[in-house]
Amino acid sequence: MLVAVIGTGLVGGEFIKQLVSIPPETSPFSLVSLTSSTRTLWTPENPVISAASWKSSLAGATEKPDLQKLTKDLAQLISPSTRAAIIDNTSSDDVAAMYPVWLKAGINVITPNKKAYSGDLGLYEKILAASKESGARFLNESTVGAGLPVISTLKELVATGDKIKKIEGVFSGTMSYIFNEFSTGSPDGPSFSSVVSIAREKGYTEPHPADDLNGFDVARKLTILSRTISLNPASSSPTSLPSLQSFASVQTTSLIPKPLEGIPAGDEFLARLPEFDAEFDKMRKEASAEGKVLRFVGVVDPVNGQVKAGLEKYPVDHPFATSLGGSDNIIMFHTERYSPRPLIVQGAGAGAAVTAMGVLGDLLKLM
Ligand SMILES: NC(=O)C1=CN([C@@H]2O[C@H](COP(=O)(O)OP(=O)(O)OC[C@H]3O[C@@H](n4cnc5c(N)ncnc54)[C@H](OP(=O)(O)O)[C@@H]3O)[C@@H](O)[C@H]2O)C=CC1
Ligand SMILES: N[C@@H](CC=O)C(=O)O
Ligand code: NA
């Protein structure tokens, strides 16, 4: 299997490390291309095999990224015995827009990037159609819950005829970390802005942390789950989910203070966040006075036709308050079969190692 990686940042770098650490004598993969935002390496004659040297090889590449050329070059090498996969480890809309082209060309697509599956419904439908036409597959486990088996679990529930009554949980590693640290039931604790900065340092946030704090990252994940359920309409009948035009159709509460909306740079955004610490401290004190903690949760509810994300208060003995730590996600699947007790998936839901593992796991599924 020929593998081309686009995006060599936190997740991409860790993915390359995990991929090349499969012993060459057992690895079915050949890493033939690396692309960053500024350059591209095309090396099918001499595939990348070293975690120690790929960075210098890419840094020494002189070609600019050209996704059309990459598509052509890869497609030319596909044969009945040689398959190909592109791994998109960016958060780019432009890269996501290429999925239908790649799938049509017979190239499999694997990604933790949520943009294509939660963006415009038209792009999602083109992806489904292109995959059906060529038989090339798209896999996106790490788009929800990072490496946790969330998408695969949902696909199996749906494909085996279970009916989804409700999916609810904490879907953001960043939001989980922030509120696990910030709101413990006590009226006091670290400042909001300080825990947001640490979440970024730990690699949990999106490239721009505002994309987590505005709730959009959770809204995107809920959109992906809703669309996965809708692949089999019978799985949410007799009621149904709204057809989401994009993640923007999800009812979402943003945590971004109004004056900080639209700041394009993550660094400036974080530098100004302390101005609003007092507002968040007030919310923490109010929750504590009620014997509650704050948690940012998401719900996909086919029975009531609702998809929503927002900040809620939970009693200090609720599982969302007691059982989560670090960047943990918790996802509860309430279904016809898993009732009255839900099927629960829980564990680290962000960070390079667990996200890259979900991506590599998808690649292994292709084999
Ligand atoms: N971090 C996490 O815990 C999780 C992340 N994800 C998803 O994984 C993806 C990657 O996240 P992360 O690694 O943290 O982000 P980073 O910002 O660390 O890396 C993104 C990489 O994408 C590259 N890039 C951006 N635009 C383009 C482009 N047009 N063409 C080629 N390369 C491009 C950047 O290149 P350059 O190096 O040149 O700037 C950078 O290397 C995102 O979609 C994120 O939502 C999903 C689950 C968890
Ligand atoms: N920023 C995201 C990363 C994983 O999807 C999160 O915090 O959950
Ligand atoms: Na996952």
Distance linking N and C termini: 8 Å
Number of strands: 12
| Strand arrangement, major sheet | 3-2-1-4-5-6
Rg of Cα set: 21 Å
> Which CATH C-level class of the largest domain is it?
Alpha Beta
CATH third-tier fold name of the largest domain: Dihydrodipicolinate Reductase, domain 2
Task: Tell me the major beta sheet.
Answer: 6 strands, mixed
Domain module tally = 2
Catalytic activity: L-homoserine + NADP(+) = L-aspartate 4-semialdehyde + NADPH + H(+)
EC number: 1.1.1.3
Pathway: Amino-acid biosynthesis; L-threonine biosynthesis; L-threonine from L-aspartate: step 3/5; Amino-acid biosynthesis; L-methionine biosynthesis via de novo pathway; L-homoserine from L-aspartate: step 3/3
Family: Belongs to the homoserine dehydrogenase family.
